[in-house]
């Protein structure tokens, strides 16, 4: 029995037991359901083995939504615990686990995959490509992310969650102070997902740089595509740093190395340093695509071209470069002298300049426009003032001398939520609503959408604005409780009320999906928003080859030109199309990765070695495999095209 | 599949061009990866605790042997690609085999060196300096090991299927990988060993 | 046979051996730390450039500009990571 | 219309929240020169940023009020506008000026808070070693040869130099009303300069997450005039027990303990990680040339700070 003790949760609570039962029952229900409806074959053929960028994108988004609710549940529990002084709802340990998983899940398993999902669906369409450069690799990326996320998520029912914060600072995260396997989960699950993300980065850089439609030179790319290109460059150069940092962490915890230890020459600060060398660019990985989404949406619903296209591009390049030279502002208080802090203060504040350029360009895109307040546009418009508030508090935090007072407080928590929620969450919700008809062939209800928008926007401010104040009043972050004499009670209660409002808003989104799936009209055009870029030029639903004829482009808004100026997008005639074959290997390899990760977490070396060999076997299989893809014949294309045209 | 005969085999199809370009991007990521390992090493190089220092451990003969092996292998794989472009399958395979033998030699010396270190009481657990040293060298060594398997697979495929766009593409990408490992080694040679022995 | 050993590559190899020997001088002669570091930096980056241009044919394809941009950006990030880490972890405290 | 209402709601919330506080916010209610400098910086930045926000909001409201579709003719076609060089230069140049201004403020004040507080330079600072262990604070007064746990008495109007380190996870030593925080870490000693102008009781805490007992890792700070302080020291010396290695090791065990007081300091048997005891790589170097400079660690650090001040001024 001793052997199995390691899988027990060290700090069980009724909630965790209930979750175990719930997870078990849900999985059983899913398996039984699929078997009953005889859908295993469909699932395997159409989804698990797919290499189609659109389907992979949808799977990314579904996983991200799932994770949004996981992270959201954590958030509600945190706000509930701190709503009143000396609350006994959760104990310190449980609270620590919750804010740790909240951070990791929201950043790495919600924001990133949501963005990567939209990127998957939209980018190839916007550049007029048939798929991404390496469709098979794309499937590997998704499944690695998915398995990493699942591995991380089982932590709270098998062996215990990580509890050292999403930053996982050493020596707190070392074996001495975090005895459970929680931090092993952190190191290994993020590692697996991170490798997937790195591969995505390579894939999309190649797709965008090499597979654009004829005529679309770099300065004629839609702004979303530009943001994705730059984001993926950041991914490619930042994620290896995380890979190394997590590998060193794993070795410290599992193999007794001395990187971040307190003795034998180790340096705990080095972890913080490496973490933020990756961590700060990571912030821009989730923000820049959001900027791209807003650029598309604001220009679409202001019915105008994007103002200052060139300066929008230049500012994003500037932001991406600056994002690599500011990381030390996360630890001004670590004791490096005034000189180092001064340098990093200045580089950090410099980011405000290109970001300001973007804000003003968006505002001037509205100028002389004809603004239509659809749900995606509402999110985009709400983003501008709220994000400005987040941005200016960022400048305040950048000032090292003052940061000594903000650091580690609720002020900081308020700041990054003011940046990340309007920046990323609003953007993915806007993008999700905006591209939904392209993905599924019907619109989400505008009415329910507006309700959820107002709930989310107002509740967001109610939740997070009070934190600026409690922060200045000395409330440190990550405190699971406080005494009544501190006076933090009322404002924390207000935050809790806001959190409930946010939960209602998100629940309304789910209801909207349900309602619209049942009742929304299927009879929509290919271009329901009267939009401007190429993804709206193809049919809804999108045929697997995207475009029967590769479009030709000669401006930033070729599709708009084709509607307004009679520009001819699709010249030439239909030819047979080369498409990649589906493959089960990415899924199988990722499953082996899951097993490998699980074995590593619990130090089960034999299984880990076998799994490692299995992974290499999959790679060797790929090396020897002869897969030339397949062709879709002209007749088949024409048949599909006629059917899709007839549907309208 | 459209084959463009005006280009060398490895570039002759669109898919091949995508793969070569993609691999260059991957090498960009590898630069960042090794840079992080170097940064870690430089920070921890004086964190020797009670363990031995680099000055004590590093030896010139093994270092030079490793360097010569790897530099020469980088040269021979270049010749292999040159032979491939000339269409000489036999010469290409010979150069590839020589490359892998040299790589194996490098790996042998590295393993010998690691065993020596451990005999002197310098394990990966002894001090932060040694942890970072073993990790940096080990990551490079693991890349070489992976390369040996990869190269072998490519030799087998070229043998079996001949020089076709697909195999030529694989061989070329492998050569990029191998040269890159040589570049990394040069930095290890200079800033780990030579600086450590100064 | 001559075709199999193109002049450029043979010269490149010879040059890289010479650079290795030059680098070795830092442990043979008693140089100042500054001098030695300069020698190491120069020889290492020359070797790297040699591999990149001579053996890896970085400039031969249509993607020349993208490949060089990629390498330069990688170099930028590498230098920032290494020197920035030194700055925050070591030099900042002295 | 809805947006107007939303804005009003937000404003209303902010107003309620702000008036809800009876006392001024701790960080903005400084009781020492360092915290005062920081509070000034915060206020400068808030006003500067308020200006930026105002500009954005005014433009924003103007745009969405004036150019909404409901106010346009049905056949209105928005024009194609590439952008404007002049405007774009304006919104690059003005932010650069603002950032430059804030940079100057930052560099100047960062140097200030990293040095002995202004007006206190002549006095010999009181050195207190503040070390963290899960989840308490140990204060050693080498000058007075006493040690306290979880509470801190300091004289007013005298510069204090805290030497921070940790017997475990990274902790952050923070007394909001006296000045900003700094990390206490296990392998090196950080120096934090503070001073109290006004006698009183202040809250101090670890603000860096350090495990399950982190929320309660607080300490009380009592600032008092020198005379009272001296009296307190004498009292401790007369009444308190000496600290022994055994007792101290017991204190280090994870958990919460109340306040306690000892004569002697733990520095005698468990020295701080500075000088030859530093665990950090750059100090723990085996190079013989470095050991000399470590002895004069203090002086080099100070001269470095002066140096950096100059270089930043030139900047």
UniProtKB/TrEMBL annotation, chain B:
The keyword Disulfide bond does not apply. Keywords: Cell membrane, Membrane, Oxidoreductase, Transmembrane, Transmembrane helix. It catalyses: 2 a quinol + O2 = 2 a quinone + 2 H2O. One of its GO terms (biological process) is aerobic electron transport chain. SUPFAM superfamilies: Cytochrome c oxidase subunit III-like. The chain crosses the membrane at residues 21-43, 63-81, 93-112, 132-156, 176-194. It is an enzyme of class 1 (oxidoreductase). GO terms for cellular component: plasma membrane. It is a multi-pass membrane protein. This is Quinol oxidase subunit 3. The gene is qoxC.
